[in-house]
Design brief:
556 residues; alpha/beta; Rossmann fold; Domain 2, N(10)-formyltetrahydrofolate synthetase; Formyltetrahydrofolate synthetase, domain 3; 3 domains; twelve-stranded mixed beta sheet; three-stranded mixed beta sheet; 19 helices
Length: 556
C-alpha cells in the first residue's frame, strides 16, 4: 500500500473555491492562501443554523504511543456521511511541528482518510502557530523590557514571573535557561525557559475565544506574576493587549481545506490534551455548525483527557451541545493493555484482547456519565482477527452500544458508511442527553475529586505541600469558579503511565498547580508533565527530504 504522503500527493485536489461553493460560501468571503486553503471570516457564524446542526465528538480509549486513529476516523466518518448523502464537515486541530519532526508524525489523518494539502497542513500551514508564537514572545519581551526600564517599571519580582517564551519545536535544551546575561545593557538576569507553542496560554485563549473582543479580554487577563510588594500583575498592566491582538488578527480566523474525497474540513488551533484543553477552537466548531448539518470533531489522546476537557471546558463554557460520541478502539491497543509488548502489537491474541477490554469498558462508562452512549469504532488493521473483533462487539453489546468495524484508512468514505448510518440513526432517535460532569461553582478540590474518582477511577486525591500553597494563591486571586484542566500522562487512566487497562486502588497525586487566567481554567499537574518535549533518539526529521522539483518525502 502507498504511504500516507504518496496517497496525498496522488490525490485530485480541487481548488478551494469549489469546496467553499459546496457549502454556500461566496468567493468574496475567502481569504486565499494559495489555491488549496483559505481563511474564513467570523461573519459566517450563524446562531440559528448552529441550533439545528449536529455536533459529534470522536475520542478514543487510552492510546499506544502511535495513537489509535481519531483523526483518521474523524475524516473517514465525515467522508462516510457525505457518501450516504448527508452534509458533513470535519473540524480538526492544526498539527504542531514538534510531533511532525519528532516521533508521532502529523495530524492530517492517514491512508484514504486524510485532509489535504497534507504537506502544507503539517508544515507551517497558514501561519497560525507562528502568529501565536510571536504574540506569546512579544509579551515575554515586554515583561523583560519593563524589568529593565526603571522609569516605567511595575516593580515585578523576577522570581514570580510565570510567563515563558515558546517555540514550535521539540527542544529539551530550552526547558530551563537564563536570560539577560551580558551586562546591564542586555537585561536583568533571571531564570526562564521555553514551552512548545501548543502549550502556550495564547493557544488556549485562541481556542476558547468567541471573537476578537473576547480574545482581547482574555489576553488582558493573562497573569504574569507579582510585584515586590505582592500585588498581582496581568498583561493589561503592561499595555500589551492591543499589539498581541494585532498579531492574532488573522490567526483567529479558521482555515478551510478538503478531504481526499473533496469534502470540506476546517482546521483551527492546536492545544495538546495532556497539558491544555486538547480541542480545536470554539470559533471553528461554530463555523462548521453554521455551514453543515453534521460536524465531526475530535479531542486529543484518550477520552479521560481530550473528551473530558471537551465536555467540561469547551462545551460547558460555550453552550455547545454534542449529540453523539464515537469512541475509537484498535485491537492493537487492547493487546497493549492486555500486556503485549511493542513487537507483539500486530500478533493476534484473544487472551490479551480480553485482558485489555476493561480499558474500553471504563471509557464507555465515562461517556455514559456525560449522558452520551458512544458508538464504538473499531479502527481496522489487517492483522485484526474475527475472534478479537467479536470480543469487542460482545463487550459493547453488554453496555447497550454498537461496535462497528471502521475501514476509512483503507477504503475512505465507503469503508465508513456503516458507521455513518448508525450515527445518523442514533442522532435521529435523539439518544443523547449531554450534561457536564460538574458545576463550576464547586470548589476546585471538589472538581478535581470528581474527575479523579469518576473518570480515572481513583480512590481519592492527595496534594503536595507546594500544591496546597499554590491552591491558596489561586483562591486568593479569585479563580475558584474556573473549570479544571488536568495535566497528566495520556498513557494510563491513572497518573502512573505503567498502569494499563483499568487501574484500581490508586490515589491521584497533585504535584503542583498552574493556571491560565486568560483561557479561564486551573491546571492541576499530576506527575512529571513536560511543556517542552524532547526529540527521540531517531527523530522523524532524519528521514525527510525534498528533491529538486520540490517533492517532499518522509512526511507522515
Amino acid at each position: 500500500m502507498l504511504s500516507d504522503i504518496e496517497i496525498a500527493q496522488s490525490a485530485n485536489i480541487k481548488h478551494i473555491k469549489e469546496i467553499a461553493a459546496a457549502i454556500n460560501i461566496n468567493n468574496d468571503d475567502l481569504e486565499y492562501y494559495g489555491k488549496h486553503k483559505a481563511k474564513l471570516p467570523l461573519s459566517l457564524i450563524n446562531p440559528d443554523k448552529i441550533a439545528k446542526s449536529h455536533l459529534v465528538l470522536v475520542t478514543a480509549i487510552t492510546p499506544t504511543p502511535a495513537g489509535e486513529g481519531k483523526t483518521t476516523t474523524t475524516v473517514g466518518l465525515t467522508d462516510g456521511l457525505n457518501y450516504i448523502g448527508k452534509k458533513a464537515i470535519a473540524v480538526l486541530r492544526e498539527p504542531s511541528l514538534g510531533p511532525v519532526f519528532g516521533m508521532k508524525g502529523g495530524a492530517a489523518g492517514g491512508g484514504y482518510a486524510q485532509v489535504i494539502p497534507m504537506e502544507d497542513i503539517n508544515l507551517h500551514f497558514t501561519g497560525d502557530f507562528s502568529a501565536i508564537e510571536k504574540a506569546n514572545n512579544l509579551l515575554a519581551a515586554i515583561i523583560d523590557n519593563n524589568l529593565q526600564d526603571k522609569k516605567r517599571s511595575l516593580n515585578l519580582d523576577p522570581r514570580t514571573i510565570l510567563w515563558k517564551r515558546v517555540i514550535d519545536m521539540n527542544d529539551r535544551a530550552l526547558r530551563n535557561i537564563v536570560v539577560g546575561l551580558g551586562g546591564t545593557a542586555h537585561g536583568i538576569p533571571r531564570q526562564d525557559g521555553f514551552n512548545i507553542t501548543p502549550a502556550s496560554e495564547i493557544m488556549a485563549i485562541l481556542c476558547m475565544a468567541t471573537g476578537l473582543e473576547d480574545l482581547k479580554k482574555r489576553l488582558a487577563n493573562i497573569f504574569i506574576g507579582y510585584t515586590i510588594s505582592g500585588q498581582p500583575i496581568f498583561a493589561r498592566d503592561l499595555n500589551a493587549v492591543g499589539a498581541m491582538a494585532i498579531l492574532l488578527k488573522d490567526a483567529i480566523k479558521p482555515n478551510l481545506v478538503q478531504t481526499l474525497e473533496g469534502n470540506p474540513a476546517i482546521l483551527h488551533g492546536g492545544p495538546f490534551a495532556s497539558i491544555a484543553q486538547g480541542t480545536n477552537s470554539i470559533i471553528a466548531t461554530r463555523t462548521g455548525l453554521s455551514l453543515a448539518d453534521y460536524v465531526i470533531t475530535e479531542a486529543g489522546f484518550g477520552a479521560d483527557l481530550g473528551a473530558e476537557k471537551f465536555f467540561n471546558i469547551k462545551c460547558a463554557s460555550s453552550g455547545l451541545k454534542p449529540e453523539a460520541v464515537v469512541l475509537v478502539v484498535t485491537i492493537r491497543a487492547l493487546r497493549h493493555h492486555g500486556g503485549a509488548k511493542k513487537d507483539q502489537y500486530s500478533t493476534p491474541s484473544t487472551q490479551k484482547v480480553a485482558d485489555g477490554l476493561p480499558n474500553l469498558a471504563k471509557h464507555i462508562e465515562n461517556m455514559q456519565a456525560f449522558g452520551l452512549n458512544p458508538l464504538v469504532a473499531i479502527n481496522h488493521f489487517p492483522g485484526d482477527s474475527p475472534e478479537e473483533i467479536n470480543l469487542v462487539q460482545d463487550l459493547c453489546a453488554n453496555y447497550n452500544t454498537q461496535a462497528i468495524v471502521a475501514k476509512g484508512f483503507a477504503d475512505g468514505g465507503k469503508g465508513m458508511a456503516e458507521l455513518a448510518t448508525a450515527l445518523v440513526q442514533k442522532i435521529e432517535e435523539n439518544q443523547g442527553d449531554f450534561k457536564p460532569l460538574y458545576d463550576y461553582s464547586l470548589s476546585i478540590e471538589e472538581k478535581i475529586n470528581t474527575i479523579a474518582t469518576k473518570i480515572y477511577g481513583a480512590d481519592g486525591v492527595e496534594y503536595s505541600v507546594k500544591a496546597k500553597n499554590q491552591l491558596k494563591n489561586i483562591k486568593d486571586l479569585g479563580f475558584d469558579n474556573f473549570p479544571v484542566c488536568m495535566a497528566k500522562t495520556p498513557k494510563s487512566l491513572s497518573d502512573d503511565d505503567t498502569k494499563l487497562a483499568r487501574p484500581s486502588n490508586f490515589i491521584v497525586k497533585v504535584r503542583e498547580f498552574e493556571f491560565a487566567s486568560g483561557a479561564g481554567f486551573i491546571i492541576p499537574i499530576l506527575g512529571e508533565i513536560m511543556r517542552m518535549p524532547g526529540l527521540p533518539s531517531i527523530p522523524a526529521a532524519e528521514n525527510m527530504d525534498i528533491d529538486a522539483n520540490g517533492k517532499i518525502t518522509g512526511l507522515s
